[in-house]
Amino acid sequence: MTDDRPLVIVSNRGPIRFLRDASGERVVRRGGGGLVTALSALTASRPLTWVASALTDEDAVVAQEGVYEDGGLRLRLVAHDREEYDRYYNVFANPTLWFIHHYLWGLALEPSVDRNVRLAWEAGYLPVNDRFAEAAAEELELAGERAVAMVHDYQLFMVPDGIRRRLPHALIQHFTHIPWPDPDYWRVLPEDIRSAIHGSLLACDVVGMHTARYVRRFLRCAEEFAGAETDVGAGTASLGGRTVRVRPYPISVDPAEFRRLARSPQVRAAATTIRAERPEKLVLRVDRTDPSKNIVRGFAAFDLFLDDHPEWRRRVSMLALLDPSRPDIPEYAEYVGAIQRAARAVNDRHYDADWQPVDLRISDNFPEAVAAYTEYDVLLVNAIFDGMNLVAKEAPLVNRRDGVLILSENTGAYAELREYAIGVNPFDIQQQANAIHEALTMRPAERRERIRGIREQVREHDIAAWIAGQLRDL
């Protein structure tokens, strides 16, 4: 699809947020991230409407005023009842769906699908999704019969069904940005809920995932929970006289954007500070404080590495730059405590007045993270499960030390970068400790070859290619 067909993007978070400054004037802030950057860039080539939640108080005011327009972008904000949105987001989408998709439940003890979870589904997730579907359908009708709906992520699984009921002939895609779990793990949810979710996604024309591994799992789920006839080789699921194409589209980043960021004054200043404080070698991890990121086991692996290789004492440190994530959800708040305890335990065991083995920083400081990208010798990405993990793609683009990537085999990025990374099982602490030693002692020529391979892969398969592939298939 290379024409100028109008697009209607539907996502929980939008490309713009509205605030009030100290003087009471309205302030417009652009959203960040590669997805917003890539999709917003489409306004130069075709009409683009974006349907998203009103998340700030001023967003809600804009939603009451109608549609906000800026150049080629038309923004439709959807206002929600506060309690309803809390059930939708903080109980059902996170943690229930997020924990299912990342295999985070310890099934012997949790979860219990009680009245609270059922209420979050019936009086939170369903009405919020239906409100999104209504707004999206109205925008599709305004855009004309050639318009395409592109719905994003696990918060909005029921939107395709809502659009299809209102507009039977609409062209609809849904893209899931997180892993797709095996059918047995979906059985955590009651039959009616898991069947409704898969049935809604089969109301699409195209379903997008990050990897072929997730596509295969989705097709198995579609067969088991919705009764679809599936063809794994063709990547199709047929139900009710319709055939849905299920395709892998590995998301990526904008290499030029990261080159610009690395040259910015804020990043250069932060890099100067990191260089002044770092020891001979630096192991880096950049993550959110999310249980799926496996931070506690990463600290345990670094602890074991120091035990196994005392010759590296005082010569290497781990810098952990962690962005606070979903502090209102108890499971996330508890995990932050576990992270802090784990870092303190490593530092206490290997105490030295002139050396801190683990430098833990929990803050929202993106320029510091990009600065650290330029300085690492080893990048540890050991997620339990991760839809893609863009850190593994971003950091090598701007690194100046031929840093080595240690990468969990359960990340979406592993399918693309495994040839150039040291792959690890995220549960195997000894293997991760060994990988840290291998990375630190790797020959310079091999280090250069590996990071060159990552850069070439990311530059060839960048965020623009991710968008283009989906538009072609639509």
What does this structure look like?
With 474 residues, the protein is an alpha/beta fold. It is built from 18 helices and 18 strands. The chain has helices at residues 34-41, 57-65, 82-101, 115-143, 159-166, 183-186, 191-201, 212-226, 255-263, 265-277, 295-308, 330-349, 366-375, 391-398, 414-417, 429-440, 444-460, 463-473; strands spanning 7-10, 16-20, 26-30, 48-53, 68-70, 73-78, 148-152, 171-175, 206-209, 229-231, 236-239, 242-248, 281-288, 316-323, 358-362, 378-381, 404-408, 422-424. The protein has a ten-stranded mixed β-sheet with strand order 5-6-4-1-7-8-9-12-11-10. α11 (295-308) links the parallel β13 (281-288) and β14.
How are the SSEs placed, and which strands pair?
Layout: E1 7-10, E2 16-20, E3 26-30, H1 34-41, E4 48-53, H2 57-65, E5 68-70, E6 73-78, H3 82-101, H4 115-143, E7 148-152, H5 159-166, E8 171-175, H6 183-186, H7 191-201, E9 206-209, H8 212-226, E10 229-231, E11 236-239, E12 242-248, H9 255-263, H10 265-277, E13 281-288, H11 295-308, E14 316-323, H12 330-349, E15 358-362, H13 366-375, E16 378-381, H14 391-398, E17 404-408, H15 414-417, E18 422-424, H16 429-440, H17 444-460, H18 463-473
Parallel strand pairs: 1-4, 1-7, 4-6, 7-8, 8-9, 9-12, 13-14, 13-16, 14-15, 16-17, 17-18
Antiparallel strand pairs: 2-3, 5-6, 10-11, 11-12
Helix pairs in contact: 3-4, 4-5, 7-8, 10-13, 11-12, 11-16, 13-14, 14-17
Question: What are the key terms here?
Answer:
Rossmann fold; six-stranded parallel β-sheet; alpha/beta; 474 residues; ten-stranded mixed β-sheet
